[in-house]
Amino acid sequence: MDIDLLLNWLQASLRLGAPLILVSIGEVYTERTGVLNIGIEGTMLTGALTAVAISYFTGNVFIAALGAMVIGGLIALGHAYLTVTRRANQVVSGAMINFFALGATNVMFARLFERERERVAVFPVLSSDGLREIPFLGQVLFSQPLIVWIAIILPFISAWVLYRTVWGLNIRAVGDHPQAVATAGLSVIKHKYLGVLMSGVFAGLGGCALTLSELGYFAPGGMTAGRGFIVLAAVIVGRWDPVRTAVICLFFGAADALQLRVQALGGIIPYQFLAMIPYLLTIAALAGLVGRTVPPKTWGLPYDPKEY
Amino acid sequence: MIKATALREKLVLPAIGELLLSSFRPLLGILLAFIVSAGMIALAGANPIQAYRALIEGAIGSPQSIANTMVRASPLLLGGLGAAVGVKAGLWNVGIEGQMYAGAVGATAVALIPLPVPSWLHVTLSMLAAAVFGAAWGLIPAYLRAYRGVNEVVTTLMLNYVGIYFASWLVHEPQPLAEPDAFYPMSRIILPSARLPILLKGSSLHPGPIIGIALCVVAYLILRYTPFGFRTRLIGSNPEVARYTGMNVNRQILFVLILAAAMGGVAGSGEILGLKLRLYDFFVGGVGYEALAVALLVMGNPLLVIPGALFFGGLKSGAASMQITTGIEAPMALVIQALCVLFVIGVGFAERRWIDRRKQKVTEEAKANGY
Amino acid sequence: MSMDDQLMLRMEGITKRFPGVLANDNIHFDVRRGEVHGLLGENGAGKTTLMNILYGLHRPESGEIYLNGKKVEILSPANAVELGIGMVHQHFMLVEPLTALENVVLGISPERPPFLDLEPARKRFTQLCEEYDLQLDPSTEVWRLPVGKQQWLEILKQLFRNAQLLVLDEPTSVLAPAEAEQLFKTVRRFAEEGRSVIFISHKLGEVLEVTDRITVLRDGHVIGTVPTSQATRPELARMMVGRTVILERKPREKIRAADPVLLIEKLCCKNDRGLPALKDLNLALFPGEIVGVAGVDGNGQRELAECIAGLRKPTSGLVRIKGVLVDHVIADPSLLGYIPEDRRKTGLSIDLNVEENLVIKDYERPPFTQKGMLRWGMIREHSTNLIRDFDIRTPSPSVPVRHLSGGNQQRVVVARELCAKPALVVASQPTRGLDLAAVEGVHDVLLRERNRGAGVLFISTELQEVLSLSDRIVVLFRGEIMGDVAAENTDINLIGEMMLGHRIEELAA
Questions:
Q1: Which residues, other chains included, contact C144 with Cβ-Cβ below 8 Å and sequence gap of 6+?
Q2: Which residues of B touch A86 (CB under 8 A)?
Q3: Is residue A247 part of a domain?
Q4: What is C3-241's CATH topology?
Q5: Which residue range forms the structural domain that includes residue A167?
Q6: ipTM confidence score
Q7: Domains of chain C: which residue ranges?
Q8: CA A85, CA A95: separation in Å to the nearest integer?
Q9: For chain B, how are helix, strand and coil distributed in percent, rounded to 5?
Q10: In CATH, what class is C262-507?
Q11: Per the CB < 8 Å rule, is B245 touching C331?
Q12: Residue C361 is nearest to which of B11, B245, B371, comparing CB atoms?
């Protein structure tokens, strides 16, 4: 097998996995507090457009990323208000966010980019000529845009926060036994809001990674193509652990890269079956075929403060 | 002492209030959604009044528009019913999208077989195949939920993509269903004997929506007039009590989810047999989620699915015309749809608390007077 | 030294109302420093409410709280913890996937936020374990710990926070006798250290063993406070159950019958937590009698009713209704009419209407279903009759039951269960949450059933109604029957003592 092809595939795996990893960081937090946010698909999409738009008008990638995160956070606040304060159904709220995002991004995109799409400023690639010469690592690692590096590092920071800070401890407790948290004197509502907010902020960042890591443009009509749902799958298979989830995201990214290449080159396995892998894997995990997959006890359930 | 009549008024009024509110809530939510959307349309640089006028024109302004609306409503009727039946039982079938693909595969497969049978039979068999394939798609989530307590939202959601890719594989060469040398992956065109007839010359109106409306009515009748329907409503209302009456709750959950998935399958078949005549790669394009939105908007009521689906169909149909007239892109309809559902679910809770408080006051008064 | 200086806690004039019930009525309660103070009372007496107020989970309508002589406002559990109050709830507040150490530090602000510095906490944890002789490993996840250890962990949580006033709510309900002994030693040690402990329990023996003073609550007010050294069992039992006028016993004829309609032999079963709820229970109930099951809530009443109805599988022993073995949910309406404890959760489907609830068990049988279709006409006729016969106040049968008052909701359940004239009627807390008129109604109905020849098992924590309604009374304590006495002319104090855990054989002396 051609070594170049392999390296190329690995490089693509990282690149395609990065947005997934970023989104997953936030989703882990919100699900750990017991709130499901299936609207990360739409949030990611909105973040993608926002990033492109801001990058277009300011030429600054970092402001664009920030903007994407802010927009994502705002959307998440809406979701949090509906599901935590109003105790509305989490699935409905999330699904409708996706709808809203799809329609709104379409309309906004047409407003903003009346001319043909222009390429906007993207994340700088972190490398140098020297580093790129290194065999194997050079091609795979040292030709990645900055955002991929962030995606590689963030899960470790996230894990540290979750397991080694007070806030992380509280988050882990809230989704499992909110009453215990309440009687310990903490605010369950506040922690749920923060968890949901995280999912929005990072979904926005993930969307930004999608458009500004290499492409530099936004394609209307559903650019995220189900990536948000793949992240949902990854969080479950990764058992709500940041690093494990990130690894699963990488794995899914690799599968994505593989099926793209198989599609182009033609192979024995139809690429569609490769594409199915994340979804089938999740169902298998939930069915208990790949070890114990137990969600936080109040996963998806509304919290009634009156029952403390 | 409160007289019985006065008591009746005091109890009946909240009851009527509740009924009004339960049909009122969707309407109120929709109104709010339109107001907010008007704001967004204005922000996007168009005149909301003009836009809405175009929307209405495109939805019901001419026989062609009405036909269009009904065509768009067709998958929403059946798919929405599939989700609604689940909602009545407290089960969330989010997998309509995938079930539509699965059903479409079944229908296309049968529709491509030259059967020596009259057309109506060929169509019926195709639709049955769709139901079976759809049901198969619901089997795993149904089993996992009924007997292992696994949340059906995630399992049905995941199978959406499995359905999409499964159908995709089958319409790519060299699969038997695929059209050779096509410019876009699609199936071969289905045989004439398996096609649904066009009802209105010059339009694409097929019997799909009629079948959908009929099935909604049938579903309502089943829910109201059969023991199966009673059981379904019971597990949706209070599964504890259901167990206490000796019902086999797990089996009921299994049946309901499989049935809901079958309906999703039939929804997919309608599009193939009536409208597209071929299974195109990615043809559903999100309609499955729209059907879900319809079901959520009407809170699972099968009869209300009819106006709900027609409403959403009208929105889609009208949006195309709105784009031509005012330049607001057609996907704006998605925004309106989303806002409708969000406002409806958001609006509900304050009112429920008010109703409950009033009721409590009344019953406390009644108790004090010896009831 | 004035009295006030000795008092760690003084609660004065505490009144708390919930919809429909006065939970705490002008309660005065105080605890001295270094004292173990027992809080005794049946369920519904108001103990838990009072303690929840102390812990900041509820706000009283009126009254004041003084800690160490200073008036305080306790607005939230965080407040309470700051003030040095610690509470170990009956239902554990432990996050199972987390380790013991993590649970202990939950809610405590760290030295250097945001870092979760577990090392100092770990040291303190092990130190406290050594001091109090607890065998707890800080790195074990809570779900791996047996229930007894989880209880100790809850207590450790409070020690960690330097709680000076510790509230223990029914702490021995999940402990084996040996573990309970260790708990008592530890509690006494707390007192010697100058901490105060409020020990809530309904187990008289334990309260007498470990406390310095005992306060008895009944129906929301304080009946009295006695020094433990001077308290006697009969007196405490009397305070707990009261010597108020017994409701008039209804006139009845004695009915002689041969074969029991309900036969329970050596029944053992577990509760939802996996602990034994019923132990080798034997009971025979004959047609034409009402057997009242008295006892403080939580001693196996719910599990008993569920085993009889076939809703809970016994671990051993058997239940027979009219000779028929109960090994599945009993659906035959002529055998059993079961009025469950929680009508809103298990008895009624709150979203369905009155007539639907009336046929919730029979809808598939003719005449309600014919040729596979539900006949709403027949259902309507049936429900109209039941509404009339059982005096259900509703504007129409198609009103959702959530709109009915509690009393009428109960009438719906009663009507449904009794309309087929079952041989056995099991009524579990049937008058809970009902006003006086509705209670009378339920009593009348049960007596009517008894008079027509049904056997009635009447489970209630309200001793008054058990006394007035039953022919025979059995007392349930920790899943065992303490005694079986005729209701007429029985000594209420005897019953009270049995409710607190003494077998009739011991008391007869």
A1: none
A2: 346, 349
A3: no
A4: Rossmann fold (3.40.50)
A5: 3-115+122-222
A6: 0.84
A7: 3-241, 262-507
A8: 18
A9: 75, 0, 25
A10: alpha beta
A11: yes
A12: B245
